[in-house]
Specification:
The complex is a heterodimer of chains A (304) and B (403).
Chain A (H helix, E strand, L loop, with lengths): L17 H9 L29 H12 L6 E4 L5 H4 L7 E2 L6 H15 L6 E7 H7 L1 H9 L5 E6 L34 H7 L4 E6 L3 H17 L3 E6 L13 H8 L9 E4 L1 H31 L1
Parallel strand pairs in A: 1-2, 1-3, 3-4, 4-6, 5-6
Antiparallel strand pairs in A: 5-7
Helix pairs in contact in A: 2-8, 4-6, 5-6
Chain B lengths: L16 E2 L2 H7 L3 E6 H10 L5 E4 L6 H13 L4 E4 L3 H13 L4 E5 L1 H6 L3 H7 L5 E6 L13 H6 L5 E4 L3 H15 L8 E6 L7 E6 L4 E2 L33 H29 L3 E4 L5 E5 L2 H15 L4 E6 L1 E3 L3 H7 L5 E6 L5 H7 L8 E6 L8 H11 L13
Parallel strand pairs in B: 1-10, 3-4, 3-5, 5-6, 6-8, 7-8, 12-13, 12-15, 15-16
Antiparallel strand pairs in B: 2-9, 7-14, 11-13
Helix pairs in contact in B: 2-3, 2-8, 8-9, 10-13
The chains are: A alpha/beta (304), B alpha/beta (403).
Chain lengths: 304, 403
Amino acid sequence: MSKERIKIAEELFDIMPVEYQDLVKRATYGNETRGWKDIGNAKELIEEHSLCAGCPESMAFRYILASLPNPEDTVMVGSTGCTSLVFPHVAVHNIHSLFGNQNAIASGLKRALSVRFPDRTKDVVVLAGDGATVDIGLDMTLQAWFRQEKFTTICFDNELYANTGGQESGLMQKGFVAKMAPVGKSFEKVRLPEIARESGCHYVVNCTVSKPNLVEKVIKNAIHVAREIGPTYLQLYTPCILEIGKNSMEGLQEMRDSEKPSERFAYKEFVSEPAKELLTEMAAKEKERKAEAKRQLAAKTVSV
Amino acid sequence: MATQASFIGQKNKKDQVYTDPWNMMYEAERTPSFFTGSEVIKEAVRRASCDMMVAYPITPQSEAAALCGELFAEGYIGDYFRGESEFAVMSQCAGAAFGGARVFTTTAGPGTMRAMENFPMWAGARLPIQMIVTCRGINSPLSIQPDTLEISYLMQTGMLVWHAETAQDFYDWILMGYMVSEEPDVHLPLALCCDGFFVTHTKDMVDLTPVDMCLPPYDPYRSPVPCMDMECPPVRMMRDPFVMKSNYISYATHASWQQEVWAAVERSRKHTIRWMNGLIDTENADADVLVVASGTAVSQSREAIAILEDEGITVGLVKVKTLRPWPGEEIKEATKHAKHIIVPEFNVTGWLAREVRSTIPNNERVHAGPHVCGGMTMPPEIIASEIKTLMGMKTETLSARGS
């Protein structure tokens, strides 16, 4: 891109909203090396959000949007829930339609974009909560994977229905007492990462969003693998501090506690053979790019 | 950005010429062909420049959906696949339409009901998807036979709803349907309904437009809402998401958008009237007795009217072609002289009679029935006998005649 597509006619620049002017002047569309470190320096693709203060989902949103490799040609698909309160503030096209149908929407969308733009890359990224992904939308989640649809599915796993007030969900831990689980949930947390692997996903990661560099890496990997090979799945722990009785400042610690080696969000990764090849190739190119940048910097320093 | 005009005269990859739709439908030479309704659907889609079709098996639309798959294999459709359920299929159609594709799908009966959550969403999102509905029973115990009850649910969704009588209607209306529903001041989904089996599985003579002509492609940038393809600026849509707000602005926004969707249904009138030569057809509308019907009930009524004509009784006919927009004024005008208005229907509740009653003055003139349902046929004799009874004439019971 091409910020061309969002450029404002000079005569009208000053009457556009300041957020939009910022988007044109300081957003990182088209910057191939964009990442979480741009947060705070460049224009972010998310405006102020309407989530609870300290909600880890808001952190996750920022890291993900900063890490999209190709935001100028990325369309996101959401579902009903807390995430749907954020999408209206996001500066990439995004679709909310119904609850649980996100992977069906994304299947149609990705195919339509491939038909309409056969020579260009248009990424599709699904981002939905665990109720949408695992409960009401499970058939469409899995069927998209069976069909090898080429988009990334991200699940914000907060282990319950947060937006409706803390009801039991399939990804909730066994024994947790919640609304609609008045004597504690009676069955185990659904093992969707393993199911994703068996269903044909080529890159699967289960982790928290405590480390922005890790989030950046897995987002980029997942999107590139989806673009070139087939479906990818990320399950990110974004605890609902409200419903688990934590304070605004305690979200980060909750994630750190839950990613210890023996805990349920210890980093887990599955990469298929073709995805391994792709990622190795990409890593080599990235190494070469960095070395080249270093050489150029050195040359510049010498000439000065 | 692309405009439709720029495509006229160019060829697609199947060597079909993108043709001015009016010329294609009204001026180009037609070839009479003897086809089933399902084959007619295929032939219309072949000429419709569709980017995407999503299919799912359910009787009686399975054959049409599979035939469209052959079109994809031949290269006439951009992409095609089988979804996992009608709910998913209609969401897949939505995703494709959000992405700027011209989308086609088919469903029937329980499939329509399973997918129902999608339809007000399609209308609210202004997605001009075309869905063929080959109506069948939705009752329990299971039935796969014709029954039009599902149409009454579709009528409240904000979609355009048309009810085809014959395979010829079907053929023409599939192509005209895109022209109406893609108008910028309409831009709504269309449910093009017919009575399953009676239309889909019987053969009929249909006049086809030339196979080397097709509709101009869909131009998603004529939509009243942004196409979700990142080809136009991704501005933040709103400062506060309306869903969670309990305030006047939120309510007013939702209310005004619903009103706008229904206003768009109304705005489709002028386009539909032009393309389909009116929202209703009438024959002998000045008769004392009128039949008002839609779908296959129209054909059966024609037969009944011929039977009565032989006995010297003249009965008029109003064929209702569009249910949304509802041709209220047209029906009011057409029925103003009628003393008795008979509304035969292929469903148990009589939704068409209810609509007619809600439209015309002195609505005690409306006689709801005869009704058949669950796959029963409607012999013209029962319509004729109902009319005679209503006129105070003696009729033999059907059983006495052994029919």
